[in-house]
Write a structure and sequence with these properties.
The structure holds two protein chains of two kinds. Chain A contains five helices and six strands. Chain A is of the alpha/beta class. Chain A has a single domain, classed as Rossmann fold, CATH 3.40.50. Chain A has a six-stranded mixed beta sheet. In chain A, helix 1 links the parallel strand 1 and strand 2. Chain A is globular, with a radius of gyration of 14 Å. Chain B has 15 helices and 15 strands. In chain B, helix 3 packs antiparallel against helix 4 and helix 5 crosses helix 6. Chain B is α+β, with helices and mostly antiparallel strands. Chain B starts with a strand and ends in an 11-residue tail after the last helix. Chain B folds into two domains: 85 residues, no CATH class; 236 residues, Cytochrome-c3 Hydrogenase, chain B, CATH 1.10.645.10. In chain B, strand 13 and strand 14 form a beta hairpin. The chains are: A alpha/beta, B alpha+beta. The interface between A and B is medium-sized, with 31 and 37 residues.
């Protein structure tokens, strides 16, 4: 299975996807590949041939900053509402966000059986800014959400097995 | 949204424009077929880049300004490198210029393929967006994704990363890609070039509203080839000036309704246009034979003044970008030094390149230790903003017989004709940010 940390490392809370992905990679779970990307349209390529993909991204839905939100979809799943993840994907192609990439993959019959979106409610996307304190504090919760989705439940295993981090 | 005013006038308002880069809104008021107000409102958070750059080292702008935009980072890197090298009195080698051009081809490919297939084509094929279009025309969308991927691969190989390249420095590159690495891209680029030629045929068959822009066109023109990474400035009325004289001819000014500065050419109250239509109309004689043939087959003359046909010009520019990338790769010999030394000196420098959306200009003033004392960035979308508004004015008046829905759709399409990168255009924040 694949974990994708999405977002720009240089735009404030948008970096949270990558931060969570690296924390997951550090757990070195067997059979879990971890990558970081900035452009949501890359997801369509990344979905190919996968049975489970977990996407971590900053989200702006109007809830409390730092709240972790999990949405699940997949081949047989419900389409994502237009509003879902509407405020994300600012890093790469804002015009084409995560929800659009997922639904485009569905239309192209490229969506994996299971896709889990883990969103961390963001507050600011200023250039060069660090994570907001609430977002930084939410990283462990988001990591747990990813691990639950992978079935790993946060149990650390042998280091360096089947895990790869690339940009 | 569209509603009647009590005095019989009508207002069209789109709160958040779809399928454009960044966040913007459109507001049009018209009465009795006459437009009384047109505003393209841009309300991305502020970009105080110019202030942020002051006091930083002259080596930093390529990395810092690349982060202004996830779509055109190479444009920012190239324009800033040229400007700083100009300030320091350094000229890079021909090989470095060619490698910059190759990297830039990757950016044009990514940006144009995204815009043509995922953002603009749905307008012409009658879909709300790429997702709906993909259900009926999956092969078209798959082709677009493949063509874009070839650009990503090129950016990865030359730039070190497909989104914000990390291999660019003042004076050149940290490392030149090897001939072997470049040749590995060849088959993908060849296939994509053939698909781009098919794409020109596809989009040339779309139905285009009749509209001719009377505005001045402005682009770079290079000594050889189609303008991409460098050149001097030319205009459709015969104007020609060096990049060093850009600020003598282009004045920026602030308008209350937008965060983006507007720009004016030689004090004229009329708008001027940068981008694919301007580039093509001023340089179609410089296209490669493959791109020129594709343009001719698509029915394009030596100039193109219909903004709706910009999708055809972008497709022709894709043919040019793949062809040019292949040409540079085939001639690459692994003998070039990756960079030239750029010792700092006090002075002012100017740089410009053709971002996918048009001319991007940078100016820097350095002190003798290389600290930036002043910085100015003029992005293409702010230059185009007056012409976008003028187009909207013309269109609403010309097509006032259309029903509200059709007229509104056509106005949104008119904005997408420019592929506006609102993220790049923003300088000030003096409007309320609406993110509901």
């Amino acid at each position: 299975m694949l974990v994708v940390g999405l977002g720009s490392p240089d735009r404030g809370d948008d970096a949270v996807g990558g931060d969570v992905a690296r924390a997951v990679a550090a757990q070195a779970l067997p059979g879990v590949e971890v990558v970081e990307h900035e452009d949501p349209t890359d997801l369509i390529e990344l979905f190919s041939g996968r049975s489970l993909v977990v996407v971590v991204d900053a989200v702006r839905s109007g809830t409390a900053t730092g709240a972790v939100r999990v949405l699940e979809t997949g081949v047989g799943g419900e389409p994502l509402p237009e509003s879902a993840w509407a405020g994300t994907g600012r890093a790469g192609t804002h015009a084409f966000g995560v929800a659009a990439a997922v639904e485009l993959a569905r239309a192209l019959r490229r969506l994996p059986p299971r896709v889990v979106l883990v969103g961390v409610e963001a507050a600011a996307f200023d250039h060069g800014a660090p994570l907001s304190p609430q977002v930084a504090a939410a990283v462990p919760d988001a990591v747990d959400a990813v691990l639950r989705a992978t079935g790993g439940a946060g149990l650390p295993t042998a280091q360096g097995v089947g895990t790869d981090v690339s940009r | 949204m569209s509603h009647k005013l009590t005095d019989g006038g009508q207002v069209m308002h789109v709160g958040t424009l779809a399928r454009v880069e960044g966040e913007g809104a459109m507001h049009i008021e018209y009465r009795d077929g006459v437009v009384t107000d047109v505003q393209l409102r841009i309300y991305e958070p502020p970009r105080f880049y110019e202030a942020f750059l002051r006091g930083r080292s002259f080596t930093e702008p390529p990395d810092i300004t690349a982060r202004i935009c996830g779509i055109c980072p190479v444009a920012y890197q190239m324009s800033s490198c040229w400007a700083i090298e100009d300030a320091c009195g350094i000229e890079v080698t021909e090989e470095i210029r060619l490698m910059r051009r190759l990297l830039y081809c990757g950016e044009w490919i990514e940006s144009h393929a995204l815009h043509i297939f995922l953002l603009h084509a749905p307008d012409f094929l009658g879909y709300d967006g790429a997702i709906e279009m993909a259900a009926d025309h999956p092969e078209v969308v798959e082709r677009g994704l493949r063509m874009k991927k070839a650009g990503n691969d090129l950016m990865d190989t030359v730039g070190g990363r497909s989104v914000h390249p990390v291999n660019v420095r003042v004076g050149g590159f940290y490392r030149m890609p090897t001939r072997l690495e470049l040749r590995a891209l060849r088959s993908r680029l060849e296939r994509a070039r053939d698909e781009a030629i098919e794409t020109v045929r596809l989009v040339a068959g779309f139905d285009f509203p009749d509209l001719e822009q009377p505005y001045e066109y402005l682009s770079l023109r290079a000594e050889n080839g189609y303008p991409i990474e460098s050149g001097s400035v030319v205009t459709s009325s015969g104007g020609a000036f060096a990049v060093q004289d850009f600020t003598k001819h282009i004045q920026e000014f602030h308008v209350p309704h937008s965060n983006a500065l507007h720009a004016r050419l030689d004090g004229s109250p009329d708008p001027y246009v940068v981008g694919p239509l301007a580039r093509y109309s001023l340089n179609s004689d410089r296209l490669s034979p493959a791109a020129r043939d594709a343009a001719r087959e698509a029915g394009l003359g030596p100039t193109c003044r219909n903004p709706f046909r910009s999708i055809v010009v972008r497709a022709v520019e894709l043919v040019e970008a793949y062809t040019e990338a292949l040409r540079i790769i085939d001639a690459w010999t692994d003998s070039a030094s990756p960079s030239v030394p750029v010792p700092p000196r006090a002075g002012e420098g100017f740089g410009a390149s053709e971002a996918p959306r048009g001319v991007l200009f940078h100016r820097y003033v350095l002190d003798d230790t290389g600290i930036i004392r002043d910085a100015q960035i003029v992005p293409p979308t702010s230059q185009n903003q007056p012409s976008v508004e003028a187009d909207l004015r013309t269109m609403v008046e010309a097509w006032s017989d259309l029903d509200d829905h059709a007229l509104l759709h056509r106005c949104e399409q008119a904005i997408r004709n420019y592929d506006p990168c609102i993220s790049c255009a923003t300088h000030f924040l003096d409007l309320t940010v609406d993110r509901t």
